[in-house]
């Protein structure tokens, strides 16, 4: 800092910077020169130097917001390298900020931005300001003192630059003094805003302007970056305009752990040397997650002495000297542990060797920006990582695929996150800035409410909530929406403890209250986290003379749910010795006649069912409480309230009919005379990680995913049902027997077959006693053990005959279903693959034990949607030596069952793709032919990574040439109709059928 005069006061607590030109001028002289400045908004065009597009846009957006009556707390989103610092300098001078406090996250960034302010960056060079415009006096605050040692030096400064950690060393009076004497607060790298000190300072600024800059307006801890986004310059636009260098990814595939670091280093050094030979002044950074790991990989890079590698971490001494040496380009290789982050401006940093990848997508995006800075004498950014690393986080998997396009992925993820933030801010805009402290906490209430109807004499007065407090309960914080539709407040209660009579000891309980008034329906929804909340008292304060919704109207919320299943049903009875009964399971049927004849009234119901193909839970009480076993954000709670409000006001809904059409339960003494379509593992096991469950047979283990349960015969005896467990090589027979109002599973093997879950080994028969397999019947009812779950609703509608598609099976032996590993050309599966190949990007042969479907086909639509189609094929049996299509209902039982069985894969695309990847790798490891008929294993990896970022659309198709469309019977159409009904109810998708003429 040769050009500067530095005066230090206290022990490094602060230092004061000025240029030689403004040594003899004071604060007012400088501010006056700014007010007299005519700021020139010169834009860079071709060879004409000036401000970049994002800088011009950001400056105008900020100045516009400051001049308007809108909130003064704003956020500017600008990708790294687009010129945030010059934008900050420009707004300070253009609007003549009286005194600006700038908070940054690191020492490096503090020094960098202070240096820029003292010279006003490029403002003079680009002639954006007058020659007479004076540079500011800059006070740099550093930690080491509890107070500002000389207030005059603070008041003489035009700009104060510090870090959040430095401010934490100052006492409350000193912080208040700083806030009182600063007109504007500027926060750089605003995704750190929720750090306690930052938030504290920001809150103290109140209605004063707070301007936040960030490249990534989202945090890794899920909390929100407050401040309305008034300007967003997307990465995609930055790349088009040339401000964001292209990213090249160089994957390393190394499965031997001991060799990974050497392979990464070899690739990184190769790229570095190529860039240097091409005239680029590039530097390589090798990232490690720990000091010990950094020291280990530094030994690898130390052999390249001609590139002068250096190690830097938090324990290394003389860090400033090392950083200065790095900035002087004395080192081509830097090995570090998160040391060169925000504020370290080194455009030559272009190659990242990721020996340890970041585990957060947010941090990865922020880290990426360090390597994409623009300089006409520099090349593209290059990243190297091992894609065989099993520790890659799912959210990052698309980045770490062999052919991944980092430019597209970074754009896509960044855009999605920013759009999500904007939508949330649209909701936040409903609240006054001065009273939204509660909103800033990122509320995530349980989904529950009680509902009131406002009468003609009732009035919604949310501001009167303050009367709700009493001597035992204080209202702490609150927020009211600008349109007065939503009221939120928190309370602090002091309750006596149960283990002492002392009044001096009490429990402190914090509770949340939310009130939402829907003016269209005149319904008031109130949520409270308190178990003892006096909701009536609150309503008397904010909507006096409202009437609570109770009784039958509450149960209307269950209307419209498909396959509604009551987990419990409570009724009140007018009997002295028996006032309340709770029914569960099969007992629920007993309650129905009691309710219909009015010998009992509904008290409470908790149920689950399907809504638009998604499983939801709902509970409701005669007293008016409504709930779901879920929690969500405040805006989602409001949406939920609006939805249930529509049902509550629908007088056409008969709640008794809802109960009668719900799924019922009966205990079986014998099996019903219905055809079983499939048998599957218990629901509970399907919710676990199936990859960690194995079947043990005489010491040999097979993954559960490679074992399936299969119906042994479609003919049931009265009390016995036969099935078998099909492994990849053998099948093992079992029977489920009904006896004495109970059931048991019997193995037909002479040796034990065990199931191992979380290292616990059980005989499979013993496991089935507590977890019976699920049997799906042709009327869409289910059997689990000795219980049958069914509905009185007539689900047996016929599949529309006109929807059946006809295929030309010429040249196909329709008695041959699978193409096998030999790709049998005249098989049904091979024929269908050839017919559909051109429609998809990936076609996968998944035939075999544990299959998802016989064919899984995937199409990528503009990187925005994955179409995932499952094809279930079935052969036509030979009768008297010939396979002829006809009207045999038996030909559709098994394939319909397979269709319903595959529902478990719908909505789990990452699990589905992972399953395919494992099956392909297993097939290849056995030296057999690939399962992939179109596409590649790399494409599978890509689709798995994409699946959680894009929309996934599904279709299930039955391929059965044994069905003759002309001859098909009503019975056959009913079986197909049952399968489609179940499919639509539980997933929301339709069934397609391909048959013969």
Task: Provide a short characterization of the protein structure.
This protein is an alpha/beta fold and 997 residues long. The chain has 26 helices and 46 strands. The strands form seven sheets. Strands 16, 17, 18, 19, 20, 21, 22, 23, 24, 25 and 26 form an eleven-stranded antiparallel sheet that branches. Strands 1-2-5-6-4-7-8-3-9 form a nine-stranded mixed sheet, sandwiched between helices. It has a seven-stranded mixed sheet with strand order 40-46-45-43-42-41-44, sandwiched between helices.
Describe this structure in words.
The protein is of the alpha/beta class. The chain folds into six domains: 5-233, P-loop containing nucleotide triphosphate hydrolases (Rossmann fold), CATH 3.40.50; 244-410, P-loop containing nucleotide triphosphate hydrolases (Rossmann fold, 3-Layer(aba) Sandwich), CATH 3.40.50; 434-548; 554-662, no CATH class; 668-777, no CATH class; 801-996, Restriction Endonuclease (3-Layer(aba) Sandwich). The strands form seven sheets. Strands 16, 17, 18, 19, 20, 21, 22, 23, 24, 25 and 26 form an eleven-stranded antiparallel sheet that branches. The protein has a nine-stranded mixed sheet with strand order 1-2-5-6-4-7-8-3-9, sandwiched between helices. The chain has a seven-stranded mixed sheet with strand order 40-46-45-43-42-41-44, with helices on both faces. A hairpin with a 3-residue loop joins strand 25 and strand 26. Helix 2 runs parallel beside helix 3, helix 23 packs parallel to helix 26 (970-987) and helix 24 (909-925) runs antiparallel to helix 25. The chain is globular, with a radius of gyration of 35 Å. The chain starts with a strand and ends with a strand.
